[in-house]
Design a protein that fits this description.
Strands 5, 6, 7, 8, 9 and 10 form a 6-stranded mixed β-sheet that branches. The chain has a two-stranded antiparallel sheet with strand order 1-2. Strand 7 and strand 8 form a beta hairpin. The chain is about 35% helix and about 15% strand. It has 12 helices and 10 strands. InterPro entries: HARBI1_dom (IPR027806), Transposase_HTH_dom (IPR027805). This is DDE Tnp4 domain-containing protein. Its cofactor is a divalent metal cation.
């Protein structure tokens, strides 16, 4: 019930008559309504008198399922009062016995979704190549080159791109598996399992990426400054050290401790002819000298007469060994 402002009586009467005509047509075709209606307005005079009585007060009722036999609606006028009643049998509209609140799409505040912009969600959060380089040290081209070597599995919590990202972050930054588990919302055991699984796969798939090119290919691709000053340069060599955890035995500690780095490391010899790695030795303990690694790794066996090898002062025994071989 609500108050209404005064309006034009003629317009109100026209609207009332149109409404009565529509209501009468609906009532004649409905089921179960006529028997409960004690008073139906059909004349203009009676309607006018009734409108005058209720000119400041109005009521409105709307329903749609009047043809259903299980639905009965009645309206009764008693003096200046009006009464309405609806009878609806239980389950006449085939309503579900229980109601559940359901939503479409994840809640960005409660679900670990990429919609949560303030959280890290693996590879989906990498927006440009600089971000990828900062985390992994590789470009999108190299990342996409390694991706086909891996097979996706529904058992893993991370998609295949995030798994490769985890692997490269570990290689580049050397952070612990516990830290990786925090970033990627997985357990430490899962992070370790993913890393070593990808490690075996990538090592077996990319071992042919490192090969010893022929001398002609190297001389054709040397930088101009090398062609002038070192025309016979076959490669540049150096040993690199990688920090490792403290070993569990005294013997391993002695073998891996590097006096140069003042920590436990593994050493490997790397040869670079023109920007690409052409030789990579096995790993040695940090206390092993550069000369011993060069002589023991089999690198000298790949050289040909007349080849020049550039190295720093940490390889004093190489020349002697080459002379002995000749």
């Amino acid at each position: 019930m609500y108050k209404k402002n005064e309006t034009n009586q003629e317009h109100r009467m026209d609207r009332y008559q149109r409404a009565q005509k529509v209501t009468s047509d609906n009532i004649l075709h409905s089921v179960g309504i006529q028997d409960h209606c004690d008073y139906i307005i059909t004349s203009t005079d009676e309607g006018n008198n009734l409108m005058n009585q209720f000119k400041e007060v109005s009521t409105q009722v709307a329903f749609e399922n009047s043809v259903n036999k299980n639905f009965v609606f009645s309206c009764e006028f008693v003096g200046s009062d009006v009464c309405t009643q609806a009878t609806i049998q239980k389950n006449c509209f085939n309503l579900a016995s229980s109601v559940q609140d359901k939503s479409c799409g994840p809640d960005s505040l409660q679900v670990d979704s990429c919609l949560s912009y303030n959280k890290f969600h693996g590879f989906d959060c990498i927006k440009d190549e600089n971000q990828l380089k900062d985390l992994t040290g590789v470009t999108f081209k190299v990342f996409n080159l390694l991706l086909p070597f891996l097979s996706d599995s529904n058992k893993n919590l991370l998609d295949i791109k995030s798994q490769l990202l985890l692997f490269l972050i570990k290689i580049k930054l050397g952070i612990t598996f516990s830290a990786l588990s925090v970033f990627l919302k997985i357990s430490r055991r899962t992070a370790s399992k993913i890393f070593f699984k990808l490690f075996d796969v990538i090592c077996s798939k990319t071992k042919n990426f490192i090969f010893w090119p022929d001398k002609y290919s190297i001389t054709q691709t040397l930088p101009n400054s090398f062609k002038i000053n070192y025309p016979n340069c076959r490669c540049i060599i150096d040993c690199t050290e990688i920090k490792v955890e403290q070993p569990s035995t005294v013997e391993q500690c002695v073998y891996l401790y590097s006096t140069y780095k003042s920590c436990y490391t593994v050493k490997t010899l790397v040869a670079v002819p023109n920007g690409m790695i052409s030789f990579l030795s096995k790993c040695y303990g940090g206390r092993t000298s550069d000369s011993f690694i060069t002589n023991d790794s089999g690198f000298l066996e790949k050289l040909e007469p007349g080849d020049e090898v550039l190295a720093d002062k940490g390889f004093p025994g190489i020349k002697t060994e080459c002379e002995n071989n000749n």
